[in-house]
Design a protein that fits this description.
three-stranded antiparallel sheet, binds flavin-adenine dinucleotide, binds iron/sulfur cluster, 2 domains
Length: 477
Amino acid sequence: MNYVTNLLKAKSAERNGSNAVFTINDVVERGICVGCGACSIVDNSIQIERNEFGSMHASIKSGRLEPASIADKVCPFSDNSLNEDDLAIKLYDKSKSFDPRTGYFNDLFYGRRSDDDDILNSSSGGLTSFVAIELLKQNFVDGIIHVGRDQSNQREALFKFVTSYSEDDANQNKKSQYYSLSFDDVLKSIRGNGKRYVFVGVPCFIKALRNICINDKVLNNQVIFTLGLVCGHLKSSRFAELLSWQLSVTPERIQTVDFRKKNRDSTVNAYDFKVVDVDSREYYKTSSSLLGGNWGHAAFQLQACDYCDDIFAETADAVFGDAWLPQFSTYWQGTNIVLVRNNVITDILRAAKDAGRITLGTLSIDDLCKSQEGNFRHRKEGLVVRLSDDLKAGKKIPLKRVNLNGIAEISSKRKKIVRLRKKMAMKSHEYFLIAKRNNNLNLYMDPMRRLALKMQRLYFKDPFLMRVVRKLRNLLQ
Ligand SMILES: Cc1cc2nc3c(=O)[nH]c(=O)nc-3n(C[C@H](O)[C@H](O)[C@H](O)COP(=O)(O)OP(=O)(O)OC[C@H]3O[C@@H](n4cnc5c(N)ncnc54)[C@H](O)[C@@H]3O)c2cc1C
Ligand code: SF4
Ligand code: SF4
């Protein structure tokens, strides 16, 4: 693994010219900052702010940072931080298995909570919150760091990173929040308080935390477990606003949203989006039927996610995702896929199965990866296209674990899809800002519908032509 990483690093230097190491300065200047806040934890001259597009990002007040400064060494998109391979080999090289698609692992499962109430209030099978709460109840940790509703009076956002110290608290902070956030405030607040934690996060946040822990012994002693969420991409706070606005709730009237309301009359992937307005009225609709609800359209995707190659949180003790597999599609309550790298978590899951508290079965590595087919296309093939395009345009690129020679094997249709998706993500931020400024949702809907139609034409045959052919066929019958 180290050999491969080093080889790639050498190749990257060759590709970009000898001085072309991609540093935190490039991350910020090119807008590839995911807003995690790691840099601000180690360097208090850096501030994390929400920009006009609703994305968290680092603002370096002191101008450019010294290359290989501590902040540069913890940034998940800088070439000067340890990458997933470097970190994983230190953490998990004693694991039973390794697969280049997922990183190291000991066990692979599918599963879900048995209790109907518990599972309905989770995104998927509910095993992420189940394991986090078990770690707390069994005294492996004192608290959980994860994401929940911002309930403060001066709330600036719908969600934030929070700490839970009891099962009841943790149960208030479940479900996936597709919402740009930073973890700097919460980590600064717990640092040095003598308590032990399990941290829940998307892969790049866990990678950043691992790099912080290498440089910060206090936090290293406090973060005992990390639970990753399989990640397609993260969205700006405008995603919640767009879906709500389509249900007639304008951005300033949102009280809460639920991105994953389960629907007993549908298959598992046809979940609803729900918004509650300031008068406590509820509105909901199948998420994928709303413009922007189709994940393939990448609405409000952060640009950082176009430069990410870690799907299965390769530096986390376990990673949880949705079992998007045909055998689980009719189970509308949801089923998790789980990849485990830490035996404490396997023991917790197996004991819970024996006690009838969860359903648990084993899964093959191929089925696990099959559940994320779209993710692989976007990350692996897609990343090759995006990096190659950047290089052609003379832009500096971060070092990623893909082979750019693979561009020759990617079909022209796939390249068009990748490029259009990137454009749709970028345009979604711009058009929504215009729509908000003019208080007119159509200024977003009309141009984005045109782009969505273009994408549909790329995937399928031209729907207009299909209608003409169908009409002709009917006339001839
Ligand atoms: C941005 C994002 C993208 C995702 N993309 C995919 C994907 O492409 N494919 C896939 O299979 N799964 C994806 N997931 C994971 C999936 O949505 C579920 O979160 C996962 O299956 C766990 O479900 P669960 O029922 O076990 O979680 P629950 O039992 O509901 O618990 C969820 C836990 O995650 C925490 N949490 C929620 N949102 C965040 C967040 N943004 N950052 C940190 N912690 C959080 C909660 O606080 C809670 O502790 C994504 C999740 C997120 C947040
Ligand atoms: S990605 Fe994270 S560490 Fe890097 S600049 Fe942005 S906030 Fe800082
Ligand atoms: S896709 Fe990658 S970069 Fe984007 S939030 Fe998920 S883990 Fe982070």
